[in-house]
UniProtKB/TrEMBL annotation:
Full protein name: TerC family protein
Keywords, alphabetical: Membrane, Transmembrane, Transmembrane helix
Database matches in Pfam families: TerC (PF03741)
Subcellular location: Membrane
Natural source organism: Psychroserpens ponticola
């Protein structure tokens, strides 16, 4: 297993997954902060840290469940016609449903953030919290909703990296643990940085749309789908890694350009 974790594909997948988990966890951090701020000041930090730790445990449990379903690769239904052929398995169904969900969730999130950025935050603010247990319950519910897309993203990024699903499961768990530890240590700085640079989060949502399409094609490929004798192929992970790296590089250049313009327009007073 160590040999697999040290391969370039596994390291690239780990770095990309950790980045996406943090980006996708920004909303989660915001909602946890809102829920924790309703408690007495001496309990807020405790609620935030415990909430994120419980979130990590919850995501790992969900990873085991989803990975088990993805491992069911034997076809249970086949359809063959003169122009179409498919062999459906639970693995393909989970990936197809996950891809459709990611595309729907991402486009919905982008639309909400453009039209009404504070909608979800207002819903959380309106819920009353009287005790630490109530805060943790609300945090777990919020995290469960946000865990689905992050877990499907992890499955999409690591599926087919190794024939042994236990290896990819370990990789996903490591990425989740690293991202949660980073969020616990730097929750507020990360949240403030994203608030100042909302394009980063929008970029993360755009990546989810790409991953959603990749999951759909992966499902068709694993089902040995054929149209008019042409087999649907899987999208190489390297294309996705390049798109993400290139987009981040462009965003970094844009960030430096904007900051330079701000510095020129607001020179320091001497």
């Amino acid at each position: 297993m160590l040999d697999f974790l040290l391969t370039s594909d596994a390291i690239m997948a780990l770095l990309t997954l950790t980045f996406l988990e943090i980006i996708l966890g920004i909303d989660n951090i915001v909602f946890i902060s809102i829920a924790a701020n309703k408690l007495p000041e001496n309990q807020r930090s405790k609620a935030t840290n415990i909430g994120l730790l419980l979130a990590m445990i919850q995501r790992i449990v969900l990873l085991f469940f989803v990975s088990f379903l993805v491992g069911l690769s034997e076809p249970f239904y086949s359809l063959e016609t003169s122009w179409f052929e498919i062999h459906v398995s639970w693995q393909a169904i989970i990936l197809l449903a996950g891809g459709l969900f990611l595309i729907y969730k991402s486009t919905s999130e982008i639309r909400e953030k453009v039209t009404d950025p504070s909608h979800d935050e207002d819903d959380v603010k309106n819920k009353r919290i009287k005790s630490l247990s109530q805060a943790l319950t609300q945090i777990l519910i919020i995290d469960f909703i946000f865990s689905i897309d992050s877990i499907l993203t992890a499955v999409g990024m690591t599926n087919s990296l190794h024939p042994n699903h236990n290896y990819t499961l370990v990789l996903m768990i490591i990425a989740v643990m690293i991202s949660i530890v980073i969020m616990i240590a730097f929750a507020n700085p990360i949240r403030k940085f994203i608030e100042k640079n909302p394009s980063i989060q929008m970029l993360g949502l755009a990546f989810l749309i790409l991953i959603g399409f990749m999951l759909i094609t992966e499902a068709a490929h694993l089902s040995h789908t054929e149209f008019f004798g042409k087999t649907v192929g899987a999208i190489p992970k390297g294309y996705l890694y390049f798109a993400i790296a290139f987009s981040l590089f462009v965003e970094f250049l844009n960030y430096k350009t904007v900051n330079r313009k701000k510095n020129k327009s607001n020179p320091k007073q001497t």
